[in-house]
Amino acid sequence: MNRKNSKEWSYLGIVCLAAVVVMLPIAVFGIPSGNDLPQHFQFAQTYYDALVSGDGFPNWSARENFGYGSVGIRFYPPLSYYVLAFARVLVNNWFDAAWLTFTFWMVLGCVGVYFWARWWLSPKESAFAAVFYAIFPYHLNQLYISFVYADFAGSAILPFCFAYLTRVFGRERKSDIVGLAIAYAALVLTHLPTTITGSLALAVFAVPLLRQGKILRQIVKASTAIVLGLTASSFYWFRMVSEMSWLNHAMEKYSSGHYYFANRFFPLYFHAIATDYLDNFVVSDIITALCLLFLVSPIVYLFYRRTKDAEISRASHIFRSVLPLGLFAFFMITPLSFPIWKILSPLQKIQFPMRWMAVVAMCGAVVTAAAVHFLLKGNFLKQRI
User: I need a labelling partner for 301 at 20 to 30 A (CA). Which of 65, 83, 324, 356 fits?
Assistant: First the structure.
């Protein structure tokens, strides 16, 4: 192993260690509670029973509804529950399986952010991005406060989609097209709301990456990857789409009141309805506000440009592509984005605009790492400002 590869693996080891440390409180204090926790583990139990009995892809959840069963297992993406069920097979109890699974998704997400950041940054700076992602308030909130397990798993796969899209546009290799196809298929098979927001975010992110003279070729290659990903995951989503009318969630009440997207814009406290518990929204608004600190970190770059020779740096491209995407994602959780939500009816199906924060988290981590790059490059830590 050469010195360069050894250095790369060393920083990846640090990233994995940081992700494990962030998950240690669950091993000590237990699994966080949440409204959706029973349903997540019920689905995982169904997949576990299927694995043990040799039925690889269950169509019916026999234990739900007091033994009457449920068709819900046919509609929710299976990958996150397969991982949890497989961990249960390995360790033979749900607690250890849950902790190992949560750690797996945290490590995977951090590695994904590292992989994305490496297109612009050094291994050391990319490790900063990955660690920032591990401690990003919204990312931690997905598990420790809200316990939206499938959202958390989807957030682990999303960075790989953007990393491979960046490479498809940057070097146009066949391996990158295949990588994007695999990542996108995994995203579809993990969490549908993240797939919807992620797909729109990928389209927005692609715009600044397009290069004059290669626009058509780049679009064709990226589209090919997406089509391949949809084809690979069609065994799940084709059935789900054709049977959607079976679900109660297709009823009007699941797109109004508590579930109406316009009642969940940021700040949540000022968009709540009468039946909401406002204290919960205060916490969510504080978490969201803290996340914005990551997106304002580029002020370091602006100061660098004013005080140093402003040569074009590879890292500076992050502020022209990743930062606008993060700002767009934050815009989508505010009332200003209401016209877009009204026009794009599939977007309304995610119900909660706050799910766009998964994109903000990913972008915020990379942008902050780029700010660290210029903070160190400008020697600002050794100077009085």
Answer: 356
